Amino acid sequence: MSDMPDHLGQAMQLASAGIGAGRGALAGNLLAFGRLLRRAGLPVGPAELLAAAEALQLVEIGDRRQVHAALRGVMVHRRDQFEVFDQAFLLFWRDPEAGRNAAAMAMIDGFKERDKPPPASRRMAEAMTPPPQQPTPPQPPEERPPVEVAMTVSERERLQGMDFEAMSAAEIAAAKQEIRRLVLPLDERPTRRFRPDRGGPVTDLRATLRESLRMGGEVLSLERRRRVVRPPPLVALCDISGSMSRYAQVLLHFLHAVTNDRDRVSSFLFGTRLTNVTRQLKSRDAEVAFEMISHVVPDWSGGTRIGESIELFNRLWARRVLGQGAVVLLITDGLDREGAKGLAEATDRLRHSCRRLIWLNPLLRWEGFQPRSQGIRAMLPHVDEFRPVHNLQSLRALVATLSGPQPVRRLVA
After folding, report:
1. Cα 216 from Cα 196, distance rounded (Å)
2. Residues 281/289, Cβ–Cβ less than 8 Å
3. Cα(99)–Cα(32) distance, rounded to whole angstroms?
4. Cα separation of 346 and 313, whole Å?
5. Beta carbons of 196 and 332 less than 8 angstroms apart
């Protein structure tokens, strides 16, 4: 989801009306600050901006430390995002027009350390550097030979193995372009329906008798039919809590590409509650789809109630979307704030309602990963596959797995 819509500024002005008279510019600056944080990679949406406007009513506006603590408390949900927020606050609230100095400061830091600046510095430099006003005029063909504008092989290979969490804003944009090119041809399965086919393997007695009535009851030919074969339904349950927000933003582009590439795809987002976003993801325009999602998902980057969300899906949606051998993608890190209460039972019921349950966990990117949390230990025995999902290589491996023949599920006593 890109920058916040323009009409959110009106909501911000209404929400911050109680900040004080004569301070109408504060709401506009707060909205611009939220847009800056989003360009830097932080999951700041309408909920965070409205909470920030309310928080500023409870502190002394003239005290810089109070304002900093209030905004960071409601706009940042993860400790590893504090550095990006602190740099953005320091640069923006000192001078909202300081974008020209951000890139120079990042370059100075890079020369001092003689190394690549950390991701936080790179994101802030990219977020605050204004785009060029006019494109550079093209060079004559005789002076500049044609150059391939697509990514080079080395850049593409480096991007394939880079973790989504470590990507800069430009690298995330390139990764989203790669994701849109992924195709997910699921292994086709036979259904209960048949279609007429002259060379089909099954004789259609009803059609044969119907055709004989036209000939006075004489059977002159046998009508045949063939079983309809189609890919099974695909259902995605994606965690959008604070610990998964960075990955969820990228994986939503994957779900959008899959939804527009094939039929019978259902997508659900969950944090503290479950939200069906299938209809929103069917929009061809990705930005329009994510804009609609931002209006229907109230718990982005909040807590996690995995057990309650899966149990609610089993009760309200399983019968509707898990027919004909459906494949379920459960995208979560397994960190449940409820302490895995009811999580094992809900996951086991979900597994028995579908043909294949695949758990995608970004924590598997660590070589020494151990299932230490209660949520992971509760869910792990009830899934068919446990796979990483943290970069483009893991997504391509998932596509290759789903495109091949489905393995036979082993029975558990």
Report:
1. 22
2. yes
3. 12
4. 9
5. no
Looking at 76-226, list the stretches that DSSP marks H as alpha helix, in order from N- to C-terminal side. 82-94, 99-113, 119-128, 153-161, 169-180, 205-213
Q: Kind and range of the H or E element at 28?
A: helix 24-39
pTM for the model stands at 0.57
**pLDDT of 175-193, one tens digit each?**
777 777 776 665 666 777 7
DSSP string, 372-407: -SHHHHHHGGG-SEEE--SSHHHHHHHHHHHHSPPP
CA–CA distance from 32 to each of 12, 39, 64, 233 (Å)?
A: 11, 11, 18, 42
Q: Which helix (H) or strand (E) holds 287?
A: helix 286-296
Q: What is the CA radius of gyration of the chain?
A: 26
Q: Look at residue 262 in the predicted model and tell me its pLDDT.
A: 79
Is residue 238 within 8 Å of residue 331, measured between CB atoms?
A: yes
**CB neighbour burial string for 222-261, b if at least 16 within 10 angstroms, e if fewer:** ebbbbeeeebbbbbbbbbbbbbbbbbbbbbbbbbbbbbbe
Collapse the DSSP code of 331 into the 3-class scheme (helix H, G, I; strand E, B; otherwise coil) and give the result.
strand
Please give the C-alpha separations between residue 306 and each of 54, 107, 221, 293, 298, in angstroms, as whole numbers.
Answer: 29, 43, 58, 20, 16
Return the structure tokens found at 138: 């093209």
Identify the segments of the chain with pLDDT beneath 70: 1-24, 95-157, 159, 161, 163, 183-189, 404-413
Q: What angle do CA 135, 140, 146 make, to 5 degrees?
A: 85
* Rounded alpha-carbon distances, angstroms, from residue 15 to 9, 11, 68: 10, 6, 19
